[in-house]
Amino acid sequence: MVWEENHPKDQPAMKDNPYYQNQWGMSIDLNTCTGCNACVVACTSENNVQVVGKEEVSNGRHMYWIRNDRYYVTEGDEGAEDPEMLMQPVMCQHCENAPCESVCPVAATLHSPDGTNQMIYNRCIGTRYCANNCPYKVRRFNFFDWTKTLPTEVQMAQNPEVTVRTRGVMEKCSWCVQRIRQSQQQADNEDRDLRPNEVETACQQACPTDAITFGDLNNPESDVVEEKQNPRRYELMAYLNTKPRLSYLGRVRNTNPRIEEALSSEQDADAVAAADA
Q1: Are 51 and 60 in contact (CB under 8 A)?
Q2: pLDDT tens-digit profile of 94-128?
Q3: CATH number of the domain that 202 lies in?
Q4: Which one, 19, 73, 194, 232, has least CB within 10 Å?
Q5: Is the pTM of this model over 0.85?
Q6: Helices of type H across the chain
Q7: 41 is in which domain, residue-wise?
Q8: Edge to edge, what strands does the sheet with 212-216 contain?
Q9: Looking at the domain assignment, is residue 74 inside a domain?
């Protein structure tokens, strides 16, 4: 022990952490996402994200850990009146080079040994520097002291595994770290390694089309490893060199032109029939 103190290891300290053997990642397939917002509801319920109401949202005080962005697609000027809509769930990207971490003056947001970006609420002093520096705009500031204003019935409905945040702290997606730790504890109690795809986040579990894939990047049998090798894979705003752990599979539309013509003819026939009626 004395020799180790005077001769530190070349290996970084975080690699000596038992959590380092698991490296978490996520992939979202935009081909299968329907924009149903089930992931948003599941995340809100699982992580005690409070509902602030219409008035506070209109004031810009949004409070959710995952949002569904909508993009409207047209080809030139054609179809401007009836554009195609693309949905994209956006949450914390858990960047390897996280811009939010470098600006926090109290190290309230930091990188965990298993590759996720986590919040330490009792350190946070609410400077909001991290929100200003996040290019994905996925961090939320808590304006209210929910621990005192929540009705008793609502307090009883909160998830006991997740901290109910108080006023003045920043919040964001944690990739349901409480579920990760529970699965790791269960595997440790049973003296075994984590099984492939054993850990599921709340958004992944609730997705009706299985568009969200989460798992251990160090396990070659994990589904997320296969998703990461898909040629449709891309990272959001990758040119910023944030190296996000969350990747997307681009949407592909191979519409047969004959089917489009048939649908157009059918719609025209329905319009004529409706006009005659």
Answers
A1: no
A2: 999 999 999 999 999 999 888 899 999 999 999 99
A3: 3.30.70.20
A4: 73
A5: no
A6: 2-6, 38-46, 54-58, 99-103, 129-133, 146-149, 152-156, 177-189, 202-206, 223-228, 257-276
A7: 13-276
A8: 212-216, 24-29, 246-249, 233-234
A9: yes
